[in-house]
UniProtKB/TrEMBL annotation:
InterPro entries in the record: Na+/solute_symporter_sf, Put_Na-Bile_cotransptr
Keyword Transmembrane helix found: yes
Transmembrane segments: 12-30, 42-59, 80-99, 105-126, 138-160, 166-189, 235-256, 268-285, 371-389
UniProt superkingdom: Eukaryota
UniProt source species: Capsaspora owczarzaki (strain ATCC 30864)
One GO location term (cellular component): plasma membrane
Family annotation (Gene3D superfamilies): 1.20.1530.20
Pfam family, one: SBF_like
Keywords, ordered alphabetically: Membrane, Transmembrane, Transmembrane helix
Protein name per UniProt: Solute carrier family 10
């Protein structure tokens, strides 16, 4: 019995998700637009502002410095999230529009999911549980969430084509009031009062999740009050597509992240580029090792330019045999980070953004449905693959390899 209680306590948000949707089915008048809760004000502004204030308050910008120089990881995660995934889903959805009878609003919902930024927490939790590159996962989750505030609305306007959406300038104003300003205020609060409030142990994460449940409740109250009609087969198809899509994205990230490049190219970016940056920065310091007098024959430069393999200088190795070999770009710890940060999508940021942009649209419930499915699916799938990925990572580390 206690194990059931512990399980419910750990997964209270998923339980709450079922409860609020069921409650909205029973009493839709409570949270519908113009109803008792007046969600057009309390949800659209108050709940959304609370979520993003907490996001700003919880965003540990000082952690950026721990992983900021891992450019390859950042470019992979953000490029995969905001370029490759929307492009792939756009092609698939266009095909489904032409050759299937699935509700077009549910298909637009798949596009909505593809435009979402990575979540702030779930990917980091999984990477930490496995033992991957946690610092990079923290940086990219925070960076992706911040970029998503600006990039996601533009992608939604470009790809979803909801004709009765909020006009662009009105959306910018609403986003500024509901999203950007609360984040800035949260960052200021963290800077000046965080030390005073941190010992209080306020469950900011739970408060944010509760506000998200309120938004979902109001969304489904509007849905059930309109008595919408949609084929259950379409809903089932979308659920299957979301699950298969996540598995496909995980597989694609795994394949792409394990691609190899010519060793000479990797050496160029690992040695020459940082060296040029160091020389440029140190020009202003005459006493620096890389000052104006440094040349190709200087010991510092010669050490930087000497080919190395496995941390050992090999000046006598032939170029053809050594530098035209291929090497893997990412370590296994990095790949763990890429697997989750590149494929997870944020419900916490996504639903509030959708509420601001398309909250008044009569088909909002269908457009947001795939995202509501994607969130618990990524948590469940992540939990299932954790033991397998951990074994894969530890097997490599047991051999003393990166």
């Amino acid at each position: 019995m206690s194990s059931w209680v512990d399980g419910l306590r750990r997964n209270w948000f998923l339980v709450g998700l079922v409860v609020v949707i069921s409650l909205a089915r029973v009493v839709p008048w409570l949270g519908q637009t113009g109803g008792v809760l007046h969600p057009e004000y309390t949800v659209k502004y108050l709940a959304v502002m609370v979520i993003f204030f907490i996001s700003g308050l919880s965003l540990r910008s000082e952690e950026f410095s721990q992983a900021i120089m891992q450019f390859r990881i950042h470019m992979f995660v953000q490029g995969f999230t905001f370029i490759l995934v929307p492009s792939i889903v756009m092609v698939i959805v266009h095909f489904l529009f032409l050759f299937t009878s699935i509700d077009p609003w549910l298909l637009r919902g798949l596009l909505v999911v593809s435009c979402m930024p990575p979540p702030v927490s779930s990917a980091v939790i999984l990477v930490k549980a496995i033992g991957g590159n946690e610092a990079a996962s923290i940086f990219n989750s925070a960076l992706g969430s911040l970029m998503g505030i600006f990039i996601t609305p533009m992608l939604l306007y470009a790809l979803v084509h909801v004709s009765s959406a909020v006009p662009f300038m009105s959306a910018v104003i609403s986003l500024s009031i509901s999203v950007i300003v609360p984040i800035i205020v949260g960052q200021f609060a963290r800077r000046f009062v965080w030390k005073a409030i941190e010992p209080l142990g306020i469950p900011f994460g739970d408060i944010s999740s509760a506000m998200l449940l309120l938004i979902i409740f109001a969304t489904f109250c509007d849905t059930f009050s309109r008595q919408f009609i949609v084929a259950y087969g379409d809903i089932g198809t979308v659920i299957v597509m979301v699950v298969l899509g996540q598995l496909g994205l995980l597989g694609l990230v795994f394949v792409l992240s394990r691609m190899v490049v010519p060793r000479v190219v990797a050496w160029y970016y690992a040695r020459i580029v940082p060296l040029l940056v160091a020389i440029g920065i140190s020009r202003a310091s005459p006493g620096s090792t890389f000052g104006p007098t440094a040349g190709p024959s200087s010991p510092a430069l010669r050490g930087r330019l000497t080919p190395q393999v496995d941390g050992v200088n090999n000046p006598n190795d032939s170029f053809a045999s050594e530098w035209l070999e291929s090497i893997q770009v990412f370590s296994r710890g990095d790949i763990v980070c890429l697997l989750f940060c590149s494929t997870h999508k944020s419900l916490t940021l996504g639903i509030p953004l959708l509420k601001v942009l398309f909250g008044a649209h009569p088909q909002f419930h269908l457009v947001s449905f795939p995202l509501l499915v994607y969130h618990p699916t990524q948590i469940l799938l992540g939990g299932l693959v954790v033991p397998m990925v951990r074994r894969w990572l530890l097997q490599r580390r047991g051999l003393g390899l990166p």
